[in-house]
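Sample 3 of the quickstart, ligand copper (II) ion:
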Amino acid sequence: MNLKKHLGVWLTVAGLGLSFSSIAAQSHHGEGTVKTIDMKERKIELDHGPIKSIGWMAMKMFFDVEDRELLEEVEVGDQVEFEFVKTGDGRFVVTDIELKD
Ligand SMILES: [Cu+2]
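Result:
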C-alpha cells in the first residue's frame, strides 16, 4: 500500500473516531425539581421540563449520579438546572447540577 492510501485510511478512521466521541459526549441541559435523593444508590429523581435535545417531554424520572458530591449540594424540593449524558449502556447520568436562580 502506498503512503497516500495509508493516509486516506487513517484520516477516515480518525474522522469516524471524532464523530463517535462527540456523540458519546453530547450533554443535555434540563430544569426541574428534586423529588428524591438516594445517596446509597447514587440516584436522583427529578421532575423535569421538556428537553428538546433528547426529544423528551416533561416527566418525573430517576438519573444516576456518579459524583456523590453533586447530591450533597441539593435538597428535595429544590428547583435546579442540570446537565446529563446518555452513556453507551443506556443510562442517564447527571454530570452537573445547581440551584436555579
Ligand atoms: Cu425524563
